[in-house]
Amino acid sequence: MHPGRSATLHRSTTVPAHHRKTRRPDHGVGVESEACFMDLTAAHWVYLAGVVVIIAVMILRKNVVVPAVAMTFITALVYTGSLPVGLTSVFNASLTAASELFSIFLIIALITALLGSLRALEADKRMILPFRKVMRNGSTAFIVLFVVTYLISLFFWPTPAVPLIGAILLPAAIRAGLPAMGAAMAIAIAGQGMALSSDYIIQVAPGLSATAAGVPTAAVADRAMVLSLVTGGVAVVVAFLQIRRRFRAPSEANLVEWEDTADTGSLLVPRKDREVPAEPVAAQAGGGERTDAGVASGTPATRTGGGVGADGADTEEGVRASGRTGAPALPRVPAGETLLQEGHAVKRSKAFAVIVPVVFAAMVGYMLLGKFTGLVPETSGGEAAGLVGGIAALLLLAAAITLDGRNSLETCATHVVDGLVFAFKAMGVVIPIAGFFFIGNSDFAGEIMSLGEDAAAPGFLFDLVAQAQGAIPNTPIVVGIGMLLVGMATGLDGSGFSGLPLTGSLSGALGPAAAMDPATLAAIGQMGAVWAGGGTLIAWSSLLAVAGFARVPAIELARKLFVPVVAGLLVSTIVGVLVF
After folding, report:
1. Fewest CB within 10 angstroms: 111, 199, 214, 450, which?
2. Which residues lie below 8 Å from residue 130, measured CB to CB, with a gap of 6+?
3. In three state form, how does the secondary structure of 359-414 look?
4. What sign for the dihedral angle of Cα 455, 461, 465, 468?
5. Would residue 243 be called left, alpha or beta, if left means φ above 0 and alpha means ψ between -120 and 50 degrees?
6. How many Å is the Cα radius of gyration of the chain?
7. pLDDT tens digits, residue range 456-491?
């Protein structure tokens, strides 16, 4: 199970079959000699070439879908020697990736739909009012996002934390002047990076690393906690210094501009032709505003007829009169002002502004009870993500019924469709990319290439990493950095946890030879694997959930995080070698 995604991801977090046939007797749990020193096949080299090509294309800021699809086909063709299998593997790889990633798609869709219904009630504005007292500017917003995300993710993993932050805190941070990219960086470093890499509370990650290395779990957990704090501390400082020049003055216009990005196309890669106005579009002659068609297409359009208040915002009567109950236009509010509904609608708006945060807070309290007491069952990982999604769906229904009554059936369906459209716009292109990296994982390769249940599935990525370990010199600092690189390489498939059995096994084998504690090496490998694949450096990992909620390109977010995260990992590796 990959905690950064959902319980459906990676059906096995144990050592792949081709890595556990034989164990070295000198360390109890070690690297299988045959796996590490086996002769690599032509398919392994083709897969490695594909990894290099994809990384190169990413560095050149180009879309990697075409090379990902092409290399998936070539890898399967070379391995099986069958043209039909090569062709079907392209489809199976994307199908497998879609099934494994759909939980992220669905939760983004439900939260986006909920936000749409709250926006129709204008409850979203009332919800963020209390946070303005704390988030007075971009700097305080950055700090609040970082701290709250870390605390939630430390207990429940990032999957449920990201929707909570996206629904409650992110709009307030954007309004305070924090750019969406800065908000995404703070959330990713705190959740997908610091909290998940230590996993100090739930201890799935240190348990996997320690078992494979043959050392106590507590030893790996303690070292991983220290290393995660060092890595996160360095990364967040560097990220703050990078983004602070883009901070803005607090303004409602910041929030309006950010909301407009929902309809500007795919968020996986940046678009050069994407232009979002810095200020709200001024009302057209005759007092009209943009219609929903204008909002959807990004072009200004005038609205004839009533439904516009004195300050230029939609009134409830105008929305109903125009027949736009399914997808009300985003309200345009002059900079520095907060427009809220008047009349009887204000009670409903206030009610949901309180209900939504209270319900989510109650959910957190419920999970805390499960964690620290026996009063309720423990909820974590994918179960917690499902709880967030179910709550969002029920709140969506309640908001739609409250606003539209008999028309709520159509309204609610429209919000759900809008949410799904947004989720697939944001992340649909990631599916074939993830498919290529899934074919390199033995958990999925057999299914993708239709090898059959009894056939041994190849682990191209793990075999390549295991083969390279023999070239690492036995000096502590080199071994430490080498283990970091091995961990980062295993994270290329977008899973921070699937590589931990390998890094743990290598730690158990290399630690005594380099006069290092295997627990320290295992913690270093865990840092590399989880920070890279868990959701800070790999765009097709759970980082795409952060990018989806923040409405920024996932690949651009990964690029922005590269320098801060790598700097933090290098510093923490040196600290681990010198201190432990």
Report:
1. 450
2. none
3. HHHHHHHHHHHHHHCCCCCCCCCHHHHHHHHHHHHHHHHHHHHHHHHHHHHHHHHH
4. positive
5. alpha
6. 25
7. 888 887 788 777 766 667 788 888 998 899 888 878
